[in-house]
Amino acid sequence: MSWDFFVPVCVGDLVKTGGINQYVVQDVVPVKQLPSHLSKFKAALRSQGPSCILEHFDTGYSVLHVFWLFIYFSPVVNGLAVSLPTVLTSSSLSAAERKEKLNAVKMSVFLLCKLTESLESFSYRQNIVTAPGKGNKKGKGGEGLLQWDSERESVLQALVQLLQLDIRSLWSLSLVEEEFISCVTCCCYKLLENPTIGHVKNKPTRDCIIHLLGVLITKYNHLLGASVKVIQMLQHFEQLSSVFAQAVSVWSTEYGVRAVIGEVIREIGQKSSEELAREGSGVKAFASFLSEVGGLVPELMIPNISVLITHLEGESHTMRVAVCEVLGEILVRVLCGDGLQESGRADRDRFFDILQEHLHDTHSHVRARVLQVFTRIVNSKALPLCKYSEVMELAVGRLMDKSVNAVKSAIQLLAAFIAHNPYSCKLSSADLKKPLEKEMAKLREMKEKLEEKAPVAVIKASELWAAMEPELLVTVRTTLQHTSEAEREQEDEEEGDVEEEKSEDDDDRATAVKIAQYLRVNKYRNAVKLCIKAHDWFPESEMFAALSTVTPESLMDTLGLIFKGKMERKTPLLTTDNLPPTPQKEGDKEGEDGELKKQEMLVQYLRDTETFSLQVERAIFIINNMLYWKTTSVVQEAVQFCVTVHEFSVANSISGVRKMLPLVWSTDAAIKDAVVQAYRRLYLNPQGDTIRMKAQTLVDNLSELMVDASLGTIQCLEEIVSNCYMNHYFPECFSAGKLDNEFQFSDTDKMNDRAPFRLPQDHQLFTCLTQAVAEGVVMEDPYWQSFMEQAVRLIYFLAESPDQLCSRLLQRSARLLLDQIAEGDEVNKDVSQMHDGSQVSTDQEEQVNCVCLAQLLALCGCVAFWQVSHLERSVSAELRRRRGETEEREEKEKRPGSKAKVMSCCTIVFLINLIRDTVFFGKLICVEFANILSTGGIFFLNILVPSVRQTAVTVLTQLVLKDVLKVKGQVSEVAVLLIDPEPQITSLALNFFNELATKDNAIYNLLPDIISRLSDPERGMSSEDFNTIMKQLFSYITKERQTESLVEKMCQRFRTAKTERQWCDLATSLSLLSMCERGFKRLQECWECYSDKLTEPGVYQPLLSITAKLRRGAKPQFKSQVDDFEKRLTAVHTRGLENVESPEMDENQGEDGSAEKTSARTPLPTRGRQKSRRGQNSQP
Q1: Is residue 491 situated within a structural domain?
Q2: Which key words are in the record (predicted)?
């Protein structure tokens, strides 16, 4: 074979004249002649094998334009993969045979890759042009495309099998030409451009491409090219982020090419913020790629993480999110556990600090995702104990975030904290306070005892001598180097006190003590002089014998002997520092230290637990208030949080469970379903081994809910139980028949078509109930009230003639109370007879127990309430059932209704005088007499008793939402309850307006009247309370048309407002609106209405705040209009309306070409004029 096949850069280059010994296509076969040539090719393939491509390459080149014939060339590559191993391992392979095999490999791979690229491009175009499922008839091309979808994987597998062989030996010096590698890689990357490559159905194809590129990287030096190509394709094909993440993971783990991750991440890290900010930069693909790789191989990201952290300071929030997610994966899967080395712990703490910083990121999406990262960390138990309080405090702070997603993520993080906390969250902070104080006191006592027992530290004389020796040597040499006698005489005069110190009683030992004392107080010159004099005074002393010849060395030796000898004789015997400690004492010391460390750990644990409990209580309080937010998703998360904290028995968790109960009446189906599912999960999902145990648990749960339950709570629970029953949520252990009977009693509307079920009055059930209720009147039992309510309710539902039975009950209760009073009188008389008559008055007044009297009145109210209910429901329903005449039904229904109204008047007069503080008074009026409530019954909202106000607003909410009561002007009284001192009443009022906002234009229509009533001077409401109420009400106005209309209405009310306070309230209300451009134009048009009030600061400042809000983000043209309006406001406020001949206005009018004045001036009222003049004169 005299020619060589060179892989061309372009397919068309093969038909051009090549170089010396270069193969050129001689004959391009026409399409019509291809079948005959293909038959020859198939026959040659069967007879000669893969080598037939050398003779029939021109036929294969011609097939490149007829796509459906690709099936002829895949067997060629497969055959080469089978036959080449024996050839490559042969040692007797000649150069000609090597060239023949090499040309066959190049030709077959070239044809297969180019045909694959052409088929893939044509398939993509056809899928765009032709929609599937239209019944279009497929020609040969269509059949080929269908076959290509199934054969794509086999083609790739053939290439993988071929390239896995060591075919590099076919090339000279084993250097594979770049064009050959580029031919295969271009085919792979072309297949990856398919938009559906990431789908599940294409997983085999995707895996084959990844493995084929892995082989090229490991064996054919494609590492750098693959890294560059990954970056380029991520910029243009966002859907490839997960594909390349999987590819990089496989290349680094299965093929051992870890450098590819470093190369790719380095390229991404070098991208500047300006480059990433450009459109089409692929920032989303880069971020998704980093997140995916961090989840697959987090341990390989650590060496390159420093390159990515630079993006945390960039402008792209998407990249910041990706880097934070990578850090989270590293912390969860790599830098976790107690076995980390010092460097690992340092990296872990640094990464946690970075994540904590970005909880305050400027972009809400980053804050939300970082919270989600922390949630994953907490759920994986990878958060160190020392970080718990810090991260939880930050999470509680994020509950106040402006972003809904951040708030939801914060709630989820707090729920994860509670579910995986290492502390005891069942105890409240109040319960932990006393144990903490007790243990802290114990710790202080232990420390004080150890301090008393601790030995005094004694420094050895040798250590002191070693410390002073250098300085002392300098002093000795300086003292001995005097050359002039004058200096000696002068120093002798200065140190004359040394000679005078010698007395007759001094001996050499006393002098040595003085020298040691001088040395101890750092008087080195005095010590040296005294030591020299001592030799003259005591020449025979052994201590100073070495000073016969005074030299620095002899003087230092003498001083050392005196100092060390003196100190060692004085101190060693007084301390035990130099003695080896006894084993017993050492053991005692270790035991005391161990107990101290245990106590310190206990105190620290209690402190952390208290801090955790305080944060949990704060979070519960905040999240409970979120139950009535307008955002559905936040309410759902709050409900789930309440369920979680209750399941883990967190202190005060029941408050949220009870607070969510009224949400069962929400018009939002998602919120209602969330509440139903929450109560089903908490109370209606019994656990037990047997059916009886499950039934008992279910009964206990329902009984627990009924303890101290009010009427509103019972109605909410009935709705939940009814919903669960209708949806078959109850377990099999709960009897359906019993549940039906219960619903018969609670839903009396079903009795219209059948006779009600009643028991005789002398039934044992009623005998026991009446006896317990009557005897409980004269007892002070906190549970009697709720028991009495349910007992009377049961009597009216089940007893025959319940009015007679309750009448006897009241009489019996009154007799028992009178007997109690009589017994008290007898006791008082006995006491008075025992005392002197002058000291005790003979006129003994009857004394009544206030609690017992209140209980009797409560019983009266309860009976009155259910009596009216019995008349309107049971009796009227029974009459309708018996008579059953359609023509007379309306007339006969009026009679019991009129009787009820007459009775209501009597009942009202009676209850006003007797049981004003009884809860049933509010229930009776609100439930049964909606017409009375609509005319004057709102006054019950102003009763001082909180329970009455709470009941009134609860029932009013139900009546309004069920369209039983029409909302009128008195709704302003409900608005006042938004600032009620009782938080439960405030939340109920808030719920009322939340539900009222769901009705079309309800709050919009009521707002002007509410403003007028609340700003009435006779009401005397403070401006702070008015602003709080209005801020909540105006939050429901979200439509621009409503805002525009309200601006006009409130501006018109400036004309009728009489007091300055009303002006200020109207201006404040305008500032609370979400002002739009249309509303601002309406505000300008109504200039005449409020311009004469602008001298008041309370009017000027709110209107000025409107311009500040409108200026934010406004377009230049609109911003100029806002600036002109602000100038007008300021001019009138500072100089008064009548004094403003505004030059700037004239200029503006001149520029606009208008000769008309801006607005007509209205005369100020007398009071307003005086006020404005005073305000004008007061200006500096």
Answers
A1: no
A2: Cell cycle, Cell division, Chromosome, DNA condensation, Mitosis, Nucleus
**Can you tell me the distance from the alpha carbon of 78 to that of 75, in angstroms, rounded to the nearest whole number?**
5
Asked, for residue 861, whether it belongs to a domain, the answer is yes
Integer-rounded Cα Rg, in Å, for the chain is 48
Residue 367 is assigned to a structural domain of this protein: yes
What is the rounded distance in angstroms from the CA atom of residue 165 to the CA atom of residue 247?
21
Last residue of a domain, one of 519, 544, 564: 564
Helix (H, G, I), strand (E, B) or coil at 279: coil
The packing angle between helices 259-269 and 241-253, to 10°, is 140
Determine the 3-state secondary structure of 196 from DSSP.
coil
> What pLDDT is attached to residue 1178?
36
**Which run of H or E residues covers position 554?**
helix 552-570
Residues 530 and 674 reside in one and the same domain: no
**Is 671 within 8 Å of 626 (Cβ atoms)?**
no
Contact 1054/1047 with Cβ under 8 angstroms?
no
| Inside any domain, residue 903 | no
Same domain as 159, residue 42: yes
Apex 249 CA angle, 243 and 255, nearest 5: 120
Q: Which of 343, 241, 344 is nearest to 293 (CA)?
A: 241
Rounded Cα–Cα distance for residues 801 and 875 (Å): 10
Contacts of 290 (CB under 8 A, 6+ apart): 265, 268, 308, 319, 322, 323, 325, 326
Residues 855, 960 within the same domain: no
- For the chain, the domain total comes to 8
pLDDT digits (tens, 9 = 90+) for 759-768: 888 888 888 9
pLDDT in tens, 435-448: 777 888 877 777 77
Amino acid at 295: G
Say whether both 645 and 608 belong to one domain. no
Question: Could you tell me the sign of the dihedral formed by the alpha carbons of 342, 343, 349, 353, in that order?
Answer: positive
- 545 dihedral zone (left: phi>0; alpha: psi -120 to 50; beta): alpha
Answer yes or no: are the C-beta atoms of 756 and 874 closer than 8 Å: yes
Give the C-alpha separation, 975 to 956, whole Å.
13
- If asked whether residues 450 and 599 sit together in one domain, one would say yes
Does 1116 or 1028 have the greater pLDDT score?
1028
Instruction: Clarify whether residues 391 and 474 are in a common domain.
Output: no
**Alpha helix stretches (DSSP H) within 778-849:** 784-798, 802-834
Report the pLDDT averaged over residues 268-297: 84
**How many residues comprise the chain?**
1180
CB 814 within 8 A of CB 863: no
**457-480: pLDDT as tens digits:** 556 677 778 778 788 888 888 877
Same domain, 152 and 61: yes
The DSSP symbol for 104 reads H
Q: Percentage helix, strand, coil, to 5, in the chain? A: 75, 0, 25
Q: Residue 630: which residues within 8 A CB-CB, separation 6 or more? A: 994, 997, 1035
Beta-ladder partners of 799: 759
What's the predicted TM-score (pTM) here?
Answer: 0.61
pLDDT given at position 1146: 42
pLDDT: which is higher, 597 or 832: 597
Question: Which of 347, 73, 559 has its CA nearest to residue 547?
Answer: 559
Residue whose token pair is 């602003």: 1027
Last residue of a domain, one of 158, 186, 214: 186
Residues 765 and 730 in one domain: no
C-alpha to C-alpha distance for 530 and 520, rounded to whole angstroms: 14
- Taking residues 1078-1102, report their average pLDDT: 84
3 state DSSP class of 1090: helix
Question: If you average pLDDT over each of 84-93, 160-169, 317-326, 1169-1178, which comes out highest?
Answer: 317-326
Distance CA 395, CA 647 (A): 21
Which tokens hold the place of 818? 């009178």
Q: How many CA atoms lie within 13 A of 898 on its CB side?
A: 6
Q: Over 50: is that where the pLDDT of 279 sits?
A: yes
The identity of residue 5, as a single letter, is: F
**Residue 106 corresponds to which tokens in the numbers above?**
């190049």
Quote the CA–CA distance of 274 and 271 in Å, as a whole number.
Answer: 8
